[in-house]
Amino acid sequence: MGSLGFWRLAQADPEWVAAVDPDGTQYTAGDLLARSNRLVHGLRALGLKNGDGICGLVPNGVEGLVLYLAALQAGWYYTPINWHLTGPEIGYIVADAEAKAFIVHERYAAEGVRAGEEIEPHRRFAIGDVAGFRPYGELVEGRPDTLPDDRTNGATMHYTSGTTGRPKGVKRALMGIDPDDSAELMTFLLGLFGIPPGRPAGGEHQAHLITSPNYHTAVTQFGGTALHMGHTVVYMDKWDAEDTLRMIQEHGVSNTHMVPTHFKRLLALPEDVRSRYDVSSMKWAIHAAAPCPVPIKQQMLEWWGDCIWEYYAATEGGGTIASPADWRAHPGTVGNAWPISELLIVDDDGDPVPTGAHGTIYMKMAGVEFEYKGDKEKTEKNRLKDFFTVGDIGYLTEDGFLFLSDRKADMIISGGANIYPAEIENEIILHPKVADVAVFGIPDEEWGEQIKAIVEPAEGTEPGDELTAEILASLEGRLAKMKWPKSIDYIETMPREPNGKLLKRKLRDPYWKDRESAI
C-alpha cells in the first residue's frame, strides 16, 4: 500500500513530533516507536501470542498511546478501560477480555488494585506505585528497541457502556496483514471528512486535539487515525473551555473531535476571553455522541466558520456524515450515509417505514463483521438481516438526510403520544440561566408517564419556582404545551460521562424505584 501508518512514518522521519502530553512534554515519533517496540518484546517474553488481549487503566497521554501502538503491531487486542468504573466493574472487563497483561497508572491505584485480583500477579504492571503490581520497567527495561519479527495487525476492543446488564466487548476479526497497511485502511475515517495527511506523510502540519477520555471508541479511532496520517496528537487531561482555545492556538490544531456539551460551554465564555485566542487553524471540528441543538451549532459556525462537521455512528460500524454545507441546507440533520454504509428505518415489526416517518434506525457497513464478545444472543438481537441497531429513533428525508428523534429507551409515552425528550432538552438548553438539562418520563397514574425536567442552573443562578416559571414561559410558542415539563427539579452537577454522554438512568431510577416495571 502507500506511505501512511505510524510505524512507516516513524522510521522515515523519527524526529517528527508525534504526540504532546497534557503537561506539554513533546514526544518524537522515534521515541514512541522505540517504546512500543520494547513493550512488544517484553510482552512476548511474558508469553503473549497472536490474538491475545491487554487492558490498560491509564489517563490520557503517551502511556496509553504506547500500549495502543504495541498491540496494533503485535496482533493483540487492546482494551482501554473507563477509569470512572469501580474495582469490580474493571475486574469484570479484565476477566471478560481474557487479558494476558493489565497495566494500571498509579492515579487509579485504589480501584486498579481491587480489579487486579482477576488476573495472575505476574501479569499486573504499574506505571508509578501500585500495591501488588510489578513495576512497568520490569516489562521493558533491557528489551531491544528494534522492530519485532512477525508483525501483524492488532485492534482495539472497546466495551460498550452497556445500558442494560454487563458491558460487552465489540470484537472484530483480525486480518493478519501488515500493521501499517491496516492503519492505512483506518484512515478512510478521516478521509470521509476530507482531512489530508500531515507532515511527515507529505502534507502540511496538522495537529489533532484529544478533548475526551481515551477509553471512548471515537476518541481512540480519531486520535489513532490522525497519528497514522502524520498528524501531531495533542492530549488534554481534563476538558476546560478556555484551555481548549489556548491549545488550538498554541499547537496550530487543525482537527478535533467534540460533543455538543463542549460547544455549549465554549459559547458560555465571556466575549473578551473568546476574542483572546486565534482559532483560525481549526478546519475540522467534528462532533457526535448527542443531537446538537440547531441554534448552538449555528452560533459555533458563526464563531469558528465552516469547520463544524457532524456524524452519527456506532462502535459496531456504519453511519452518516454532515458537512457544514449539508447542515446549512438541512439544519438539524446528522447527515447522509457514508459511501460504504446503508441506512434502514423500520417500525416495531421490522418493516420499512415511509420517508419522513419515525422508526428505529438500522445501519450496515460493507465488509464489517463484529460480534459482542461471548454474547451471540445480544449480537443477533440487535440485527435485522445484516443490518444492526443501537436503538435510536429517527427519520429520513426524500434526499436521504437522517434526522434523529431520540433513543428508543428514552422515549416518553404520555396519553398514548410518543414524546421525544431530546426535542424538549434542545429548547430548554437555550435559556441563558440553564447550564445543562435532562428530560425523561416519570410515573403518572392517569397518563402513563409525565414529563420531568432536571436542570443544572448556570453559575450564579438561584434554583426555585421563579426560575421554573421563567424556563416554562420561554417555551411559549416554541413547543406544544403537551411537551412542556410538568415539573422541574434542580441539580448541582449533571451526571455526565466525560465524553458528554448523559447518565439518564441515574436521574430516572429514583422516580421508578417502587414500580414493577419502568416503561
Task: Kindly describe this structure.
The chain is of the alpha/beta class. Among the domains are: 26-200, Rossmann fold (3-Layer(aba) Sandwich); 314-408, Luciferase, Domain 3 (Luciferase, domain 3, Roll), CATH 2.30.38.10; 422-512, GMP Synthetase, Chain A, domain 3. Helices cover 30% and strands 24% of the residues. It is built from 18 helices and 28 strands. Strands 2-1-11-10-12-13-14-15-16 form a nine-stranded mixed beta sheet, with helices on both faces. The protein has a six-stranded parallel beta sheet with strand order 7-6-5-3-4-8, with helices on both faces. A four-stranded antiparallel beta sheet has the order 17-18-22-23. A hairpin with a 3-residue loop joins strand 26 and strand 27 (448-457). Helix 2 packs across helix 3 and helix 4 crosses helix 5 (109-116). The chain is globular. The chain starts with 5 loop residues before the first helix and ends in a 7-residue tail after the last helix.
